[in-house]
């Protein structure tokens, strides 16, 4: 790898090779009419230093792939990011990532480039996706000068849309996994949370097809309609 580093104003410092990789990242595609079972989705979970989307940092990325209606265990992504000066905090008790692991992690630009290469042009799924989307977008901008434009779908929003008779108290991932009898190997671990979110998504996609919602544009339309209804009821 070239050791020559580019500096441009306030942009992040990247090697020539990293700039070339950034330029080659897949462009996001518009939502198409293919059946959900024929889509490739990347299911994402992040562990972070905290919940402040303007200040906290991404510590680890876990992701699994849904492809052709099944979880493809041959396509997994897991990475811990190096963060200089990181110290244990209250969030360490939740995610369990020790400062020593962070110190040995991947350099952020390398980790984020590898992740976006893994994603390609696929839409992303997450549980409470707004948090993951905003944290990932800020990390990509800070470390790569890259603007995230991929479609993001929130499994926490899809679940009540497709399961209107479920208890209105089902808000968290734990509640929905218990509702469907799913087994969680380890909570607050990025890869484990991504895997159970993918399992939940497959159940929901099956319910979507049964309800005549069998494409991403159709799903997006139903989500938008539900948002408008909820806004009018407030």
Automatic annotation (TrEMBL):
Membrane-spanning residues: none
Gene3D superfamilies in the record: Ribonuclease H-like superfamily/Ribonuclease H
Matching SMART domains: EXOIII (SM00479)
Pfam families tied to this protein: RNase_T
Keyword set, alphabetical order: Exonuclease, Hydrolase, Nuclease
Exonuclease domain sequence ranges: 40-210
InterPro entries: Ribonucl_H, RNaseH-like_sf, RNaseH_sf
Protein name: DNA polymerase-3 subunit epsilon
Organism: Pseudomonas cuatrocienegasensis
């Amino acid at each position: 790898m070239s050791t020559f580093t580019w500096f441009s104003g306030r942009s992040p410092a990247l090697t020539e090779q990293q700039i070339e990789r950034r330029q080659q990242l897949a462009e996001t595609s518009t939502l198409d009419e293919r059946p959900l079972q024929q889509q490739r989705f990347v299911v994402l979970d992040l562990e972070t230093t905290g919940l402040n989307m303007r200040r906290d940092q991404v510590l680890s990325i876990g992701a699994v792939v849904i492809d052709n209606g099944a979880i493809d265990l041959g396509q997994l992504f897991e990475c811990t990011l190096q963060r200089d000066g990181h110290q244990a905090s209250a969030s360490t008790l939740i995610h369990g990532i020790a400062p020593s692991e962070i110190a040995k992690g991947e350099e952020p630009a390398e980790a984020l480039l590898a992740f976006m290469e893994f994603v390609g042009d696929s839409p992303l799924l997450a549980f409470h996706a707004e948090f993951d989307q905003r944290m990932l977008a800020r990390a990509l901008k800070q470390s790569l000068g890259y603007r995230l434009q991929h479609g993001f779908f929130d499994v926490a929003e899809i679940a009540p849309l497709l399961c209107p008779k479920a208890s209105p108290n089902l808000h968290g991932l734990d509640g929905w996994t218990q509702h469907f009898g799913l087994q969680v190997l380890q909570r607050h671990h990025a890869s484990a949370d991504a895997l159970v979110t993918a399992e939940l998504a497959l159940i929901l996609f099956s319910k979507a097809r049964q309800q005549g919602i069998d494409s991403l544009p159709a799903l997006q339309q139903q989500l938008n309609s539900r948002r408008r209804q909820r806004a009018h009821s407030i």
